[in-house]
Amino acid sequence: DQQVKQNSPSLSVQEGRISILNCDYTNSMFDYFLWYKKYPAEGPTFLISISSIKDKNEDGRFTVFLNKSAKHLSLHIVPSQPGDSAVYFCAASVRSGGSNYKLTFGKGTLLTVNP
Amino acid sequence: DGGITQSPKYLFRKEGQNVTLSCEQNLNHDAMYWYRQDPGQGLRLIYYSQIVNDFQKGDIAEGYSVSREKKESFPLTVTSAQKNPTAFYLCASSTPTGGVLFFGSGTQLSVL
Known about the structure:
The complex is a heterodimer of chains A (115) and B (112). Chain A has no helices and 11 strands. With 115 residues, chain A is mainly beta. In chain A, the strands form 2 sheets. In chain A, strands 2, 4, 5, 9, 10 and 11 form a 6-stranded mixed sheet that branches. In chain A, strands 1-3-8-7-6 form a 5-stranded antiparallel sheet, with no helix packed on it. In chain A, 37% of the residues are buried. The mean pLDDT of chain A is 93. With 112 residues, chain B is mainly beta. Chain B has no helices and 11 strands. Chain B has strands at 4-7, 10-13, 19-25, 31-37, 43-51, 54-57, 64-66, 76-78, 87-94, 102-103, 107-111. In chain B, strand 5 (43-51) and strand 6 form a beta hairpin. The termini of chain B are far apart. The mean pLDDT of chain B is 92. At the A-B interface, strand 4, strand 5, strand 9 and strand 10 of A face strand 4, strand 5, strand 9 and strand 10 of B.
């Protein structure tokens, strides 16, 4: 049972345009969501996160939106740059009420930004 | 320069052989994790440890073993019972307040 779903395996955008990566989750206990960026043969690097008490978090070119009623979050990258080309993983965890912070990951979306 | 060091970068396993992947962190993090990535798949949790001398199974622990004798170290042994060990293995750590996991650069394990 996949609790975090990234239904688009790949996305291609032009440099300078907006990239929108989507993620859906099924576990209503999740209260903390993260996006990671990963290059081949390297470890994922943390990009941005959002707590369930918020619906938007922004950091430079990256903005994450959370729609709790729809159990959906998205990552917007504006403007997209060729260096953004990588696999993006959505992840979720249950932070409240316990000390277990393990993350559940989606399968990832390969973003290609064309010059 | 704080971080998580995984070694080796590449590892080859023969049939029936146990191999151990090293993970060391100098971030002073209490919690450490092992994930496995297969092509086209997300990261799946193998084992995690929240404190020294304690660890719990993740979603795919069968065929693996770990130890946590020191705060800085969390080695993963891939045993001969793991029938499909070829994958990219990632070690991570996090602070006591949790949230963000910081990852090492990974170990690619292949079967000869």
